[in-house]
UniProtKB/TrEMBL annotation:
<feature type="signal peptide">
    <location>
        <begin position="1"/>
        <end position="32"/>
    </location>
</feature>
<keyword id="KW-0378">Hydrolase</keyword>
<feature type="compositionally biased region" description="Low complexity">
    <location>
        <begin position="763"/>
        <end position="783"/>
    </location>
</feature>
<feature type="compositionally biased region" description="Polar residues">
    <location>
        <begin position="735"/>
        <end position="748"/>
    </location>
</feature>
<feature type="region of interest" description="Disordered">
    <location>
        <begin position="735"/>
        <end position="783"/>
    </location>
</feature>
<dbReference type="InterPro" id="IPR005200">
    <property type="entry name" value="Endo-beta-glucanase"/>
</dbReference>
<keyword id="KW-0119">Carbohydrate metabolism</keyword>
<keyword id="KW-0624">Polysaccharide degradation</keyword>
<keyword id="KW-0961">Cell wall biogenesis/degradation</keyword>
<dbReference type="GO" id="GO:0016787">
    <property type="term" value="F:hydrolase activity"/>
</dbReference>
<dbReference type="Pfam" id="PF17652">
    <property type="entry name" value="Glyco_hydro81C"/>
</dbReference>
<dbReference type="InterPro" id="IPR040720">
    <property type="entry name" value="GH81_C"/>
</dbReference>
<feature type="compositionally biased region" description="Low complexity">
    <location>
        <begin position="47"/>
        <end position="69"/>
    </location>
</feature>
<keyword id="KW-0732">Signal</keyword>
<feature type="domain" description="Glycosyl hydrolase family 81 C-terminal">
    <location>
        <begin position="367"/>
        <end position="668"/>
    </location>
</feature>
<keyword id="KW-0326">Glycosidase</keyword>
<feature type="region of interest" description="Disordered">
    <location>
        <begin position="42"/>
        <end position="73"/>
    </location>
</feature>
Length: 923
C-alpha cells in the first residue's frame, strides 16, 4: 500500500474534476439499517455521499457473472477478477489475465491465448514483463458475444462464459494449467492464430501447430478432424460439445499431453495443515473424463512450490515471470515447509528500561497518538504503531503505560466497530464485501487493499485480546474482528456473505491488491509485507482467542507468502529476475513480471522499504534469506547515493534480520535526528534493534512446536523464544531437539534444554547419518566437529554434474522403505567471504550393494553468502533431477556427494556434528 506523507495533489485534482463533470462517486441511499454484531455493528448501506465499486469514470458496477453465479461471493483481488469486475465501460470482456504459463484475454470471439517466453525490460530499466501477446484465439465459428462473464470459479481456476444468442462457449483456465478446456454449442471449434501456423503433427482430431515459436496441441473429439485454412483452424465437434488446447514444452511432448487432453479440469482445492512446526499444503485438481476413463492431468508448479515438494516431477518445464515452472503428472501435489515464526513482540534482551520508558512516554503522552488519521489505512497504521508498544511496556513493568495504550486502541477500534458515526464499516450486498468509510486508495471504488488496511485492525485487536480476553469475546468485540477476517481471509468456501480468501491467491503463493485486476500487466501487489501483516495477525488473534483454525490459516498464509516474497520480490536465489533486469529487488510484483517502483514515488528507500513495513514479530520470516537482505540493502544505498534518510528506521530493522550488529551501530550513530516512519516509533525501533543485537538474527532453520515461537542465533549460541497465550504452562519443543518451558500467558526465553540429533530433519522418516572426514556416513554420535574442503568450481558451471566431489558412504545398509518417505539432509556449509559460490548435493542408493545405483537424486545447489559462518543447505532447496526408484535396502550402499556447482573459490562442509546429517527414508 502506498504510504505517502500526503495524498498526491494530482489525484485530488482528478477526483474534483470528475465530480464537477457529474461522473464522480455515486451517492448511496441516505437511510441505512444497522446490523448488530456482538457489542458492535456495521451498516448494510453506504454512508451518504460515498461510493462503492465503479468503473474508472465513476459509474456504479455490479458483478459481471452468469445467472448460475448470481448471488455467490465473487473473489475480487484475484488474477482473473476483470472477468467479473468491469472497470472500463468500453471493455465488457476482460483485461489480460496471467495464469502462467499461459496468458489470456477475453474478446468478443472467444479467448485469446499466449505464452510469453521473452521478457522485455521497460520504463528505463525499472520493470520487466512477459506481457500477454496473442498466439491464438479459441472460439466457435461465428461467435460474436457482447460480453464475457464469470460462470464458475474454484481456488485457482475460473470458467469464463460467452454467448451471442446462437452460440455459447465456456472455457476453464487456471494457474499452472497447460491446457485450456472448452465446451461450446452452436458452432464448430475455431482456433484463429496470430500468424499462419506451421503444422508439425496431423493425427485427425489431434493437431500440433507452431505459432510464433510456441508449440500447441489442439484436441477435438475422436472421429473429428481439424482443418487448416490460413490462420483459421476449425473442427466440427461431431455432435459433442468439447475440445481442448495445450501449450507444449516441445513438440516431442505431444503424446504425453494427448493422454490427458480429454481429462477436463473442473475445479481446484488447497488443503493446509499445521503440526509441530511444519506447514503442509496439498493442491488438488478435480477432473472429469470426456472420453475414455483417464482422470489424471498435468500441472505446472511455480518455483515456491517445487522448492518444497518431494513429489516426482517430469522433465518438462515452462518459462514464466516467476522463473522456471516444472510439470507434475498428477492431479495433486503436496508442499512441506518449516512454519514461519510469529511473536507478539521480541523479548527485551539488552534493553535499557529507562531509555525505553522515555520513548514509550513520547507516544503514549502525545497530543494525538493517531496523528490525525481518519481513513481505514492511516487509522490502521496508527493502531499498529500503538499495538507494537503494548508488550514492550509490559516487559519493563510499565503497567500504566500499557493500559493507557490498550485504552487508546480499544477506543478507536470500538469507534470503527460501531455503525452510525463518522467512521464505520458498511456491507455491500452485491459485492459481498465490507468496506470501511472514510475509505482510501480505492478500497471503496476499486475494492483495493482490504487485506492491507484491515490487517492492522486485526493485529491491534490480537494484542488487546492477549491482555483482555473478555474484550475479544464474540459477545463483545470479537465478532466484529472476525467479520473483518471473513472479508479479507475467509477460510470458508461455503460462506454466502464473503468469498474464500479474497485477496490471497493460493497457487501464486501471495496476495493481490487490486480489486478489479484491470491492467494490461494483470493484477499487482506492492506492499507484500502489509499482506503478511494480516497473516501474522491471524496467528496472534487465533492464538489469543483459542481459535486454532484461524491460527493455522495464518501460519499457512505467512509461511507460503514468505517464500513467495523471497523468490518473487527479493529474488533470493537469483533464479527469477531476468538477467536484463538490473535490480536485486522489486517494489511491485505484477501478473506479467515485476517493477523497481512504487505507486507514489521513485525514492529508493521507499521502493525497498515498502515490502518491509510494518516491522513486527511477524516480520521474522524476512530474515530467512540473509544474503538477499544484504543485496537488498546494498542496492538501496547504491540507488540512494548513501544510507537511508527518510525511512531509516524501517531499513535498519530490515538489515538487523541479517546483520544485527551493523544495524544497531547505525541506530547508535543516527537515532537522535530523524522522524520515525508513520507506523513506527523510536520506542519500537530501539527495542527491536537492541534485542536482535543481543540475541542474534532469526534462525529459520529451526522451528518450534507452537506458531508463536522463534529461534535466534548469535555466533554459536541459539536462543529460543516462545509465547504461550494459553491459561496453563506448556513445553515447546524445537526441531533441533531443544525444549522450552513457557508459563501461562507469558513469553519465555532461554538456551533450551535437552538436544541431540534433530528430531525433525524434514521429513523425519528414516535413519540419521552424520558425516565423517575421510568419507564415511555413520549413525554413531559423539565425534569431534571438523570440516572438509569443497573444491572450487574454478569458474565453470557444474550445476547438476559432480566435479571433484566430496564423497561419503555407508555400506551394508539394511532397511525397509517407509511408505511416503523421502530423502532429507541438513548440511552446514561456509564459503567464507567468497562471492558467487554454490554447493550442490547428490544422494544415491545402491539397494543391494552390487555396485549399481538404483536411485540417484540431485538437488538444486545452495548459493552461499560472502559472510563467514555456517549456513544450512537442506533438501528443501528442491530436486533438480532424479532417476530410478527407491526400494528396500538389503546390504546396500548409500552415497552422499557434495561439490561446487558454481563459483571460483573453495568452501567448507561441516563434519562430525548432528547439524550436518543425511536422513534416509528407511526403518
Amino acid at each position: 500500500m502506498p504510504t505517502p506523507r500526503s495524498r498526491p495533489a494530482a489525484v485530488l485534482v482528478l477526483v474534483s474534476a470528475l465530480t464537477a463533470l457529474g461522473v464522480g462517486p455515486a451517492a448511496g441511499p441516505a437511510a441505512a439499517a444497522t446490523v448488530p454484531v456482538g457489542a458492535g455493528s456495521y451498516s448494510d448501506t453506504r454512508p451518504a455521499g460515498t461510493s462503492g465499486p465503479t468503473t474508472n469514470t465513476g459509474t456504479p458496477v455490479t458483478p459481471k457473472v452468469t445467472p448460475a453465479a448470481q448471488g455467490k461471493p465473487v473473489p475480487t483481488n484475484d488474477w482473473w477478477s476483470s472477468l467479473a469486475f468491469q472497470r472500463y465501460g468500453d471493455n465488457p470482456y476482460s483485461t489480460p489475465m496471467y495464469g502462467h504459463p499461459l496468458t489470456y484475454q477475453a474478446v468478443a470471439g472467444g479467448l485469446e491465448i499466449g505464452y510469453p517466453t521473452s521478457p522485455a525490460v521497460v520504463g528505463d530499466g525499472r520493470q520487466y514483463e512477459f506481457a500477454h501477446k496473442r498466439d491464438l484465439t479459441l472460439g466457435l465459428t461465428g461467435l460474436n458475444s457482447p460480453d464475457t462473464r464469470a460462470d464458475a470459479w474454484s481456488d485457482w481456476t475460473v470458467t469464463p462464459y460467452w454467448s451471442d444468442g446462437a452460440r455459447t462457449l465456456r472455457t476453464t483456465i487456471g494457474h499452472g494449467l497447460p491446457f485450456v478446456y472448452a465446451k461450446g454449442t452452436g458452432g464448430d471449434a475455431r482456433i484463429t492464430t496470430a500468424e499462419t501456423p506451421t503444422v508439425f503433427a496431423d493425427q485427425g482430431n489431434v493437431l500440433g501447430i507452431t505459432v510464433a515459436g510456441h508449440h500447441y496441441a489442439l484436441f477435438a473429439p475422436t472421429g473429428t478432424d481439424w482443418n487448416v485454412s490460413g490462420s483459421a483452424v476449425t473442427a466440427g465437434l461431431g455432435g459433442k460439445d468439447y475440445f481442448s488446447v495445450a501449450v507444449l514444452p516441445d513438440t516431442g511432448a505431444l503424446a504425453a499431453y494427448r493422454k490427458y487432453a480429454y481429462s477436463f479440469v473442473t475445479g481446484s482445492t488447497v488443503n493446509w495443515s499445521y503440526d509441530a512446526g511444519t506447514v503442509r499444503a496439498t493442491y488438488t485438481l478435480t477432473t472429469e473424463a470426456k472420453e475414455g476413463t483417464e482422470r489424471g492431468t498435468l500441472q505446472a508448479l511455480y518455483r515456491h512450490q517445487w522448492l518444497h515438494t518431494t513429489d516426482p516431477l517430469t522433465p518438462y518445464t515452462y518459462v514464466s515471470p516467476r522463473g522456471t515452472m516444472k510439470v507434475r503428472e498428477s492431479a495433486s501435489f503436496t508442499t512441506s515447509q518449516r512454519a514461519a515464526a510469529t511473536l507478539p513482540a521480541l523479548p527485551g534482551a539488552g534493553v535499557d528500561p529507562a531509555r525505553l520508558r522515555g520513548y514509550l512516554n513520547e507516544v503514549a503522552n502525545s497530543a494525538d497518538p493517531f496523528s490525525g488519521a481518519v481513513d481505514t489505512y492511516w487509522t490502521g497504521k496508527a493502531l499498529g504503531k500503538l499495538a507494537q508498544l503494548v508488550p514492550l511496556a509490559d516487559q519493563i513493568g510499565e503497567g500504566a503505560t500499557r493500559d493507557k495504550l490498550l485504552g487508546l486502541i480499544k477506543g478507536r477500534l470500538q469507534d470503527w466497530f460501531t455503525a452510525g458515526g463518522a467512521n464505520e464499516f458498511s456491507y455491500d450486498q452485491a459485492w459481498k464485501t465490507l468496506t470501511g468509510y472514510p475509505a482510501s486508495y480505492g478500497s471503496d471504488t476499486e475494492l483495493n487493499d482490504h487485506h492491507f488496511h484491515y490487517g492492522y485492525y486485526v493485529y491491534a485487536a490480537a494484542i488487546v485480546a492477549q491482555y483482555d480476553p473478555a474484550w475479544a469475546a464474540d459477545s463483545a468485540w470479537g465478532s466484529m474482528v472476525k467479520t473483518l477476517v471473513r472479508d479479507t481471509a475467509n477460510p470458508s468456501r461455503t460462506d454466502g456473505a464473503f468469498p474464500f480468501l479474497r485477496g490471497f491467491d493460493v497457487y501464486a503463493g501471495h496476495s493481490w491488491a487490486s480489486g478489479h485486476q484491470g491492467f494490461a500487466a494483470g493484477n499487482n501487489q506492492e506492499s507484500s509485507s502489509e499482506s503478511t501483516n494480516l497473516s501474522a495477525a491471524l496467528v496472534l488473534w487465533g492464538s489469543a482467542t483459542g481459535d486454532t483454525q484461524l491460527r493455522d490459516l495464518g501460519t499457512y498464509l505467512l509461511t507460503t507468502e514468505g517464500e513467495a516474497i523471497a523468490q518473487y520480490w527479493f529474488d533470493a536465489d537469483q533464479q527469477v529476475f531476468p538477467a536484463s533486469f538490473q535490480h536485486d529487488t522489486a517494489g511491485m510484483v505484477w501478473g506479467s513480471g515485476a517493477a523497481y517502483s512504487t505507486w507514489w514515488t521513485a525514492n529508493p528507500e521507499e521502493i525497498h522499504g515498502i515490502n518491509v513495513l510494518p516491522v513486527t514479530g511477524g516480520s521474522l520470516q524476512l530474515g530467512g534469506h540473509k544474503d538477499a537482505v544484504r543485496r537488498n540493502i546494498a542496492e538501496m544505498e547504491r540507488e540512494n547515493g548513501g544510507p537511508a534518510v527518510e525511512w531509516r528506521d524501517i531499513l535498519w530493522e530490515f538489515q538487523s534480520l541479517a546483520d544485527p550488529g551493523t544495524a544497531k551501530a547505525k541506530w547508535d550513530a543516527g537515532n537522535a535526528g530523524y522522524t520515525p516512519e508513520a507506523g513506527e516509533s523510536k520506542a519500537h525501533t530501539y527495542h527491536w534493534l537492541t534485542a536482535l543485537d543481543t540475541l542474534g538474527a532469526p534462525d529459520a532453520t529451526v522451528s518450534g512446536s507452537l506458531p508463536t515461537s522463534a529461534v535466534f542465533t548469535k555466533g554459536t549460541t541459539r536462543t529460543y523464544v516462545a509465547h504461550n497465550h494459553g491459561a496453563t504452562a506448556r513445553t515447546v519443543t524445537f526441531s533441533d531437539g531443544k525444549s522450552l518451558s513457557v508459563p501461562a500467558r507469558s513469553t519465555a526465553t532461554g538456551t533450551g534444554t535437552g538436544g541431540g540429533t534433530d528430531p525433525d530433519p524434514e521429513p523425519s522418516t528414516g535413519d540419521t547419518f552424520q558425516l565423517r572426514t575421510g568419507g564415511t556416513l555413520t549413525t554413531a554420535t559423539g565425534a569431534t566437529a571438523g570440516s572438509d574442503t569443497v573444491a572450487s568450481a574454478q569458474g565453470a558451471n557444474h550445476d547438476g554434474t559432480p566435479n571433484r566431489p566430496l564423497v561419503y558412504e555407508a555400506r551394508n545398509v539394511n532397511g525397509t522403505l517407509r511408505s511416503g518417505g523421502s530423502t532429507a539432509f541438513r548440511l552446514q556449509v561456509d564459503a567464507g567471504t567468497a562471492v558467487g559460490l554454490g554447493q550442490q548435493a547428490r544422494v544415491s542408493y545402491d539397494l543391494t550393494g552390487d555396485g549399481t545405483f538404483d536411485r540417484t537424486e540431485t538437488y538444486q545447489y545452495f548459493a552461499t553468502d560472502p559472510v563467514t559462518g555456517w549456513e544450512e543447505y537442506g533438501q528443501a532447496r528442491g530436486l533438480k533431477s532424479a532417476t530410478g526408484t527407491l526400494g528396500d535396502l538389503r546390504g546396500g550402499t548409500v552415497r552422499l556427494e557434495v561439490w561446487s556447482a558454481i563459483g571460483n573459490g573453495d568452501a567448507r562442509l561441516q563434519t562430525g556434528t548432528d547439524r550436518s546429517v543425511l536422513v534416509i527414508p528407511y526403518g
